[in-house]
Amino acid sequence: MARISELESPNLVGPPRHGLADLVRQVRLCTREASDPPTIAKLVARSLARAEPSTSLLTEQERAGSADHYTRHTVHAEAAFSISAVVWRPGQVTEVHDHLVWCSFMVLQGSETETLFDVDGSRLVEVGRRQRTTGSVSGVAPPDDIHRVANTGDSVAITLHVYGADLSQGTSVRRTYGLPATGQTRL
Question: Residue 110: what pLDDT?
Fold first, then answer.
């Protein structure tokens, strides 16, 4: 099978990105191998671990992030999936949210803290926390994906996400949840 170079693929976004074409090829194989979202998410997470992508996928300017909020850089998009890098400066955090589609991700640099939530009757409750360090991979699919992600470290964190849809013009977030100080909210 011929290899696709970064310059030959019309779906790559931005400058040529070393190693991205091989990762895209692997994700395509995963999305063809399975049809159920949880299985696809796990297969793609394994592919991320094998591919060992690095921060060199991003330009120096992209790796710097923004002082105002975490930033997302879409590096590839096609109908079946998108690949985005997210840059988190220390203290930056998402709202509590869930997703429309499966997602697999890898921490390329630094660490992130993921706080997990579940629905208990009409309340949203915290059910755990995961500290993810460089090299960590995970894959999740709705409805088991309510979370908040934060850079609780003291250096820039960079994560690479593969989402099960073309997100070049949008987001994978289905909804956000407001949380009072108690960590619980009514739905």
Answer: 96
**Burial of 120 (C-beta count, 10 Å sphere; 0-12/13-18/19+):** exposed
* Residue 52, token pair as written in the block: 């060992």
- pTM of the predicted model, to two decimals? 0.82
List, in order, residues 6 or more apart from 52 with CB less than 8 Å away: none
Q: Is the dihedral of CA 158, 76, 22, 41 positive or negative?
A: positive
> Is 158 in contact with 110 (CB distance < 8 Å)?
yes
d(CA 165, CA 99): 11
pLDDT of residue 130: 93
80 and 22 in contact (C-beta within 8 Å)?
A: no
Cβ-in-10-Å burial (0-12, 13-18, 19+) of 177 comes to middle
Give the pLDDT score at 98: 83
Q: Say how many C-beta atoms besides its own lie within 10 A of residue 27's C-beta.
A: 25
